[in-house]
Write a structure and sequence with these properties.
The protein contains 25 helices and four strands. The protein is mainly alpha-helical. It has two domains: 328 residues, no CATH class; 122 residues, no CATH class. It has a four-stranded mixed beta sheet.
C-alpha cells in the first residue's frame, strides 16, 4: 500500500486544537517548545550512526592522561634519595598516637600501613602519592564533564593538572601534601553532584571528607570555610538549613574529635610550633602581588591562564550554577595571601578552577586551530618545566638546564640549600651522614657503646638515623626537636652522646669532654646547613632524663 497523502488544509484543521492547547501551557525553563522538536515529524530523517568509539571519548582521553601522570611520577620516584619529611612520617608511624607536635595523625598512620605492607623503599613509599596524582588528573577531567564540558574541555582540565609543576612536586613525595589536593577535589566533586541533583545528602559526604582532611592537615578548614561562604552567597544557601548539611558538620567533628582531645590534653602544641616558626622567619613570606606571581610560577603560567578564565566563567551566567566553587577558591586564596602562608598552600584548590576554565575555553574559543595551539602550548610548557619539579636529570645536568632556560623554582623556605634548590637538596646526604655516624658509634668500646645515645639537633637528622640506622646497626636517635621531644631520651643518661647538627649553642658546652670524631658530613648536593662535624661528647653535667622537659625545641 502506498503512503497516504492528506491535503494541507486537512492537516491544518487537525492541528488547530493542539496549537490552541500548546499556547496555554507554561513549560519549564529549557523545555523544547518548538513543535517540530516536541512532536516527531511524520517523515523522520534516518538517524545517523554513532561513530565515536570509547577510546576517543572524553573519559578515555582523561584516563590516558592520568596513566601518563602515574608513569611519570613512578619514573621519577627512585631517582636521587629519600626526602627529609618522608623519613619523619615513617618515624612518627613507629609512635602511633592521636597527635603530633607539627601535624595531625593521618599521615603517620598511612606511613605505618605502607611500611607494614609495601615496605619502605622509594618505590613503595611513592606509589600512593603517584596514584593520588593520577586520581587527581582523572577527577579534574570528570569535574569538567560535570560542568557541561565535552571531550576537549575534559582533556584540557586533565592536562592542566598534569603539566602544573606543583603537582609534579607534591605527588613525588610521601607526604600529606600529596593527598591533600585529592581530598579537597573529592569534596568539590560531591558539591557538583549536589548541584546536579539538588540532593542535600551529598553534604554528609562533604563533612566526612573534611573530617578525614582534618586528620591529615589543618588547612582543610579554609576549604570548608570557603564552601560555607559560597553557600551563603549563592541560591544554594537553602542547604544551610538542611539536616544533611548539619549531619555532615557533625561527622567532621566526630572524625576530628580524637585528635582534638589530644590537642587539648597537650595544650595545642601546634600553635606554639607555628608561633616559633614565624619568629625564626624560616618561611618565605610574600606581599600580595608577589604571592600571586608565585602562584603563576608553581602552576605553570599557561595553566594559570586557564585558571583565570575558569574563575571569570564561574561569575558569568553560564557558570552560575557552580559559583560556589569560585567563592571557595577566593576565600582560600585570600586567607593565605593575608596570613602570608607558603606559596604552595593554595595548590589543592586549583584543579576545580582548571575544570571550570576548560569548559569556559571550549565555550569561548570555537576555532579548532586556536584550541589545538593552546593545547600544544600547554603540553610543551609542561615538558619544559618538568625537570625543575621532579628529579629527572642528574644534579650536574639539572644545574646546566636551569641556567640555560633562566627559570628557577620559587622558594617556600629560607634555607642555606647549596647548589641545588631545597626540593632536591633535601634528598641528598642522609645515608652518608648515617654511615659516618655508625663509624663513630662502632669505634667505641662495647661497654661504652651500650650506653651511647645519638642526639640529633633536627628531626630530619634523627629521622635519617631511624631510617638508615638498622642497616648500620645503630640505635634509634633522640632529639628535642618537634615530635621527637615527645618520645623522650629513651633511658639515656647522657654519659656518652654522639651529637649531630650542632651549631655550638646549647648542646656541646654541657659536657665534660667534647671530641671531634673526625667525621664530617659534606655531601656536595645536600643542604649547606646539613654540613657539620659529628661530635663525641662525654660526661653530661646532668642526667639527661631529668633535664629533658627543659630542652624542648618546637619550630
Amino acid at each position: 500500500m502506498g503512503n497516504l497523502h492528506l491535503p494541507r488544509s486537512v492537516l491544518r484543521t487537525a492541528q488547530a486544537p493542539y496549537q490552541r492547547l500548546r499556547s496555554k501551557i507554561r513549560y519549564p525553563r529549557g523545555f523544547p517548545t518548538n513543535a517540530a522538536k516536541a512532536i516527531p515529524s511524520t517523515s523522520p530523517e534516518p538517524s545517523q550512526p554513532h561513530t565515536e568509539r570509547w577510546f576517543t571519548s572524553g573519559p578515555a582521553i582523561v584516563a590516558a592522561i592520568a596513566i601518563l601522570k602515574l608513569a611519570l611520577q613512578l619514573h621519577a620516584a627512585p631517582h636521587y634519595g629519600i626526602f627529609r619529611d618522608e623519613m619523619y612520617y615513617l618515624a612518627c608511624g613507629q609512635h602511633l598516637g592521636w597527635g603530633y607536635v607539627d601535624h595531625p595523625p593521618g599521615m603517620p598512620f598511612i606511613a605505618w600501613l605502607v611500611s607494614h605492607t609495601l615496605g619502605t623503599s622509594l618505590i613503595a613509599l611513592r606509589l600512593l602519592p603517584a596514584l593520588a596524582g593520577a586520581a587527581l588528573v582523572w577527577l579534574s577531567g570528570t569535574m569538567a564533564r560535570q560542568m557541561g564540558g565535552g571531550r576537549t574541555a575534559q582533556a584540557l582540565a586533565a592536562l592542566a593538572v598534569l603539566v602544573a609543576p606543583i603537582y609534579m612536586l607534591l605527588q613525588h613525595w610521601f607526604t600529606m601534601n600529596a593527598f591533600e589536593p585529592l581530598l579537597w577535589m573529592v569534596c568539590a566533586w560531591c558539591v557538583l553532584r549536589y548541584v546536579e541533583s539538588g540532593d542535600a545528602r551529598w553534604w554528609l559526604w562533604v563533612g566526612v571528607l573534611c573530617g578525614i582532611g582534618l586528620e591529615m592537615k589543618y588547612s582543610v578548614v579554609l576549604f570548608a570555610a570557603g564552601l560555607i561562604v559560597g553557600l551563603a552567597l549563592t541560591p544554594h544557601r537553602r542547604v544551610l538549613a538542611s539536616k544533611w548539611f548539619w549531619l555532615g558538620c557533625l561527622a567532621a567533628f566526630l572524625i576530628f574529635l580524637p585528635h582534638l582531645v589530644w590537642l587539648i590534653h597537650h595544650h595545642f602544641p601546634f600553635l606554639e610550633y607555628e608561633q616559633n616558626v614565624r619568629m625564626t622567619s624560616r618561611d618565605v613570606r610574600r606581599a600580595p602581588l608577589a604571592f600571586l606571581l608565585d602562584q603563576a610560577n608553581i602552576l605553570n603560567p599557561v595553566s594559570a591562564l586557564l585558571g583565570v578564565g575558569g574563575l571569570v566563567w564561574l561569575f558569568t551566567r553560564a557558570g552560575a550554577p557552580y559559583r560556589i566553587l569560585a567563592w571557595t577558591f577566593l576565600v582560600v586564596l585570600g586567607a593565605l595571601m593575608v596570613t602570608q602562608g607558603k606559596n604552595y598552600y593554595v595548590a589543592p584548590v586549583y584543579p576545580m578552577i582548571f575544570a571550570a576554565g576548560a569548559v569556559a575555553f571550549t565555550q569561548w574559543i570555537r576555532s579548532a586551530w586556536l584550541r589545538g595551539a593552546y593545547t600544544a602550548l600547554l603540553a610543551a610548557s609542561g615538558i619544559l618545566l618538568a625537570p625543575l619539579a621532579m628529579p629527572l636529570l642528574r644534579p650536574e645536568t639539572f644545574l646546566r638546564y636551569e641556567h640555560a632556560i633562566h627559570i628557577s623554582t620559587p622558594k617556600a623556605e629560607n634555607q642555606r640549600t647549596g647548589p641545588l634548590p631545597q626540593i632536591f637538596a633535601d634528598e641528598f646526604g642522609w645515608e652518608d651522614m648515617v654511615r659516618k655516624t655508625a663509624a663513630v658509634y662502632w669505634s667505641l668500646p662495647p661497654t661504652e657503646r651500650a650506653r651511647t645515645a645519638i642526639f640529633a639537633n633536627s628531626w630530619g637528622e634523627a629521622a635519617a638515623v631511624d631510617y638508615f640506622g638498622p642497616k648500620y646497626g645503630l640505635p634509634r636517635a633522640i632529639s628535642a626537636h618537634n615530635s621527637y621531644w615527645l618520645w623522650g631520651p629513651r633511658d639515656t643518661d647522657g654519659s656518652t652522646v654522639i651529637v649531630l647538627g650542632s651549631d655550638g649553642s646549647g648542646d656541646r658546652e654541657h659536657f665534660q669532654s667534647v671530641i671531634d670524631s673526625g667525621q664530617k658530613t659534606d655531601n656536595p648536593w645536600s643542604r649547606e646547613d646539613e654540613h657539620f662535624t659529628i661530635w663525641l661528647c662525654r660526661g653530661l653535667h646532668w642526667d639527661l632524663r631529668a633535664v629533658w622537659p627543659k630542652i624542648k625545641h618546637w619550630g
